[in-house]
Every structure is written in C-alpha cells, then in structure tokens.
Design a protein that fits this description.
The complex is a heterodimer.
Chain A lengths: L7 H8 L10 H12 L2 H28 L4 H14 L2 H16 L14 H27 L2 H9 L4 H31 L11 H10 L4 H32 L2
Chain B lengths: L7 H12 L2 H27 L3 H16 L2 H17 L10 H27 L2 H9 L4 H31 L11 H10 L6 H30 L4
Classes of the chains: A mainly alpha, B mainly alpha.
C-alpha cells in the first residue's frame, strides 16, 4: 500500500486510473479483506459480553415486573421505555461522558475524572439495550405458558420452584428463542457504531482501510460480507436450536 | 454553577438549541416510513404471489436487510449508488444527502414492514375470504373491506415498533454529513471545551425519548380505533 504523504489529489487520481468505470478495485478488496477480518474477534467479543449482560439485566427486570414489586416495577418501566427510545449512539455518548464528568467535580473533565475503558462503555451500552428488549421477550415468554400447565404441576405435587424449573422454563425458552435471536443480531449489527469511541472492530477497521486511498466502497463491501456471514451463522444456529427444542414436545 | 459536576441549566439550554433540529429528523423518518410502507407492500406481494422467482427475491432481500447494519447500508448507498449508476450514465452525485438517507432508511425498514404485513395477512383465516364471496362481494372489495382492515389491526403494534426503530436509526445520518439532532449535539458538545458534554447528550436522549413516547401514544390511539375488529 501507499506509504507516507501522498496528497489527496494523487490518491484521487489513482482512484480514477481506469477512467470513469473504476467502480470497484478487486485487488484492493482482496488485499484488505484480512485486515477488516481481524476486527471480527472484537465484534464477537463485545456482542457476546453485551448479550450476557443483557440476559442478566433482562431476567432481573422481567422478574421484577412479573412479581410486581412496588417501586421497582415503576423504575423498570421507565428504564425499558428509555432504552427502547433512545438511539444507541446517544446512549453510548451519555455513558462515555457520564463517569469522567461526574467524578471530576466540575473542573474541566477528561484529565481529572475517572476514565473507563471504551470496551466497557460499549458493553454497558449494548447490555442496556439488550436488557430492555430481552426483558420484554422474557416476560412475554413467561405469560405464553398456559396457566393450566402450572396447575397441573401443582396437582401432581411439584413445589413452586420445581414447577418453575421443570415446567415453565423449558416451555418459555422455546417461545422466546426467536425474539432472543433477533435481539442478538441487532446487538451485533449495533456494534458497528463503536468506532466512534475508538474501538476498532469490523466497522472501525473498514474505516481505517477505506481511508487509505479513499476506497470506502471496497472496504464497506468487505464489512458487509463479514456482517452477513456472522448474522446468518447465528440465525442458523438458533434456528437449529429452536427445532431441536421443539422436537421434545 | 460553573463548578458543579452536572448542570441542569445547561441541559435545558441545549434542549432549546437542539429542538430546532427536530424537524429534519422528523422529515427524514416520516418520508422513510411512507416510502418504506410502499416498498414493504411490494416485498410482501412478492412473497405471497405464486411465483418462485419473486418469492426467492423477496426472501433474499429480507435476509440481506436483516443482516446488514444500518450504518453500513447508509454508507454503501451514499458512496456506492452514485458510482454504480454512473456506469449506466446516470448522474445522481448532485443529489442532496437527505435523499440518500431516506432511501437507505426506507429500504431497511421495508424489510421489517413486509415481515409484519405478511404475518398479519396470514393471520386472517381463509374463512373470511369465503364469507366475503358468499355474500357476493368482488375480489377487490373483499381485500379492501375485509382483509386490509383486519390485517391493519393485527400489524399495528409491530408497525409502531418499526417506526420507533427507524427514528432511532435516523440518528446515524450524521455519517453522511446531515446535521440532525445528534450531529448538532456533537457541535454543541465540542463548543463546551469538554466541560458539559454529558448535559448535551442527556438533552438529546430526552428529545428522542419524548418523540418516541409521542409516536407510541399516537399508535395506541390508532390501535384503539381498530380494536373493534379484534
């Protein structure tokens, strides 16, 4: 690749070296593929950590709302409404600035406040997002189990914990899997904004690669292919799981 | 005031400044929703007609959209579409960014709309159609008087969710150089020399929250109107 200080005009002339039909530089595409691909572990790591955080948060909120615990139900409702309404990128920046500014005591933040790692901010953002959506999915799944099932379990002498563990959970998991998959895929797609806080995952790498020689189309096409492969793989895995679980009944 | 860690006063100030940029967000989302509904309808028809090629195209399109991050789609359309059309000697490089934004958002949302429409359509039992025939209604009339109203009632909650998600996605148009609420917030935030960034983004969050609550309320009212059909 080009090194050093080529002027913009030079780079741009290079871009048009095949004349007006220089649509797509295949050589550049092939050459840059591994570089963009190197962002995959970070994207997957962030997504997995966020979805785990989301599952914990979602279970907590769903439990609070099902049990209808005074005060906490209200807080959960406000939280879910907020997380579902505010764009991810805005949540990302709110969390990004919150800790340093609030710990700095007001005098010129940045240097004096506590700094937290961008990865942690990203996981918190997507964890909140996933938690809000998953709590709704979990709640709907819980209510989708017929109340006759619960009564039947009690009538054969199961304790309430056994009923929950053996009767409700297996059936609820089955009905919430499609929603879970779509939240998971949304989280993976959503992580494409974290380059804003200098995390170089797939999209960040694509931007870096694209900015060299102003070949954004090639770089973004690589990212698109990678995202599609990841999302399809996850979709197929969970579809299999869904089929596997539904065979039991 | 200057030395407090969080200034409510500054949140209110930013809120007032940023409210001027609500119309551009609303314009982009409203037009994207309209165009998305039309495109979604075509994709739904493509899925329902007995034609293997059209079915495959529609399903492929939906799968493609569900696996593509919104930001990436926006950038690819903004940078790629003019180049692609250039090879067919069509010049669209002079178009406003807003047009590209609306195009990208509506293409994305149409996939979600069409999923909703298809499932709403299949939720209506075939008996309804037969009942229409038995009282002597024409095909067109059955669709407009029986199928569409019931399908709308079923689809409304999901359509509402998709609208919320398009409002949120519209915050990504900063990437192609449109100054919307979010982009202006970045400008305001950087003018505070790192002192009051949190307040600005809290203000942005509040604006989006209010817009979404309003949209949810409107959808709820419309749902109420349709409730007699359920």
């Amino acid at each position: 690749m080009r090194e050093g200080s080529a002027t913009y005009a030079e780079l741009y002339a290079d871009y048009h070296e095949f004349g007006a039909i220089a649509l797509f530089n295949t050589a550049f595409f092939k050459e840059s593929f591994p570089q963009v691909l190197s962002g995959v572990p970070l994207t997957l790591g962030l997504s997995l950590a966020s979805i785990l955080a989301g599952i914990i948060l979602g279970l907590l909120i769903a439990a609070i709302r099902i049990k209808n615990i005074f005060f906490f139900t209200g807080v959960s409702k406000v939280f879910v409404s907020f997380s579902r309404s505010v764009p991810l990128i805005v949540i990302l920046y709110v969390l990004c600035y919150a800790v340093p500014q609030l710990t700095s005591g007001g005098g010129g933040q940045g240097q004096s406040g506590v700094q937290i790692s961008p990865n942690l901010i990203a996981i918190a953002t997507f964890g909140l997002f996933a938690g809000a959506y998953l709590s709704e999915a979990f709640r709907a799944a819980y209510y989708s189990v017929d109340s006759g099932q619960k009564e039947a379990a009690i009538s054969v002498g199961l304790s309430s914990f056994q009923t929950f563990r053996r009767i409700i959970v297996p059936q609820a998991i089955r009905s919430c899997l499609p929603n879970f998959t779509s939240v998971f895929i949304d989280v993976i797609k959503g992580t494409s904004i974290v380059y804003n806080i200098s995390i170089f995952e797939i999209m960040g790498k694509a931007n870096l690669v694209g900015s060299r020689g102003y070949r954004y189309i090639e770089a973004y096409s690589i990212a698109l292919i990678i995202y599609l492969v990841i999302c399809f793989t996850i979709y197929i895995i969970f579809k299999r799981l869904e089929l596997h679980l539904s065979k039991k009944y | 005031m200057q030395n407090s860690a969080f200034s409510i006063h500054f949140v209110v100030n930013s809120l007032v400044t940023l409210l001027h940029y609500v119309p551009i967000t609303l314009l982009i989302t409203a037009l994207s929703i309209c165009l998305g509904l039309v495109l979604g309808l075509f994709v739904t028809i493509g899925q329902l007609v007995p034609n293997r090629v059209l079915n495959g195209l529609s399903i492929g399109f939906i799968a493609l959209m569900r696996g593509t991050p919104m930001l990436l789609l926006l950038l690819l359309i903004y940078y790629g579409l003019p180049l692609l059309l250039q090879s067919f000697a069509i010049d669209i490089s002079g178009w406003n960014q807003v047009v590209f934004a609306i195009l990208a958002l509506s293409i994305n949302i149409s996939a979600y709309f069409s999923e909703t429409m298809r499932s709403a359509y299949s939720a209506i039992s075939a008996d309804q159609y037969e009942a229409g025939l038995s009282v002597g209604m024409s095909n067109k009339r059955i669709i407009s008087r029986i199928i569409v109203p019931q399908a709308t009632a079923i689809a409304l909650p999901n359509i509402g969710n998709s609208m919320i998600s398009i409002i949120k996605h519209s915050s990504l148009v900063y990437a192609i150089g449109i100054t919307d609420i979010y982009q202006q917030a970045q400008t305001v935030a950087s003018s505070t020399f790192g002192m009051r960034q949190l307040e600005v983004f809290v203000a942005v969050a509040l604006i989006y929250w209010m817009i979404c609550i309003l949209v949810e309320r409107i959808i709820a009212v419309i749902e109420g109107r349709f409730s007699y059909l359920r």
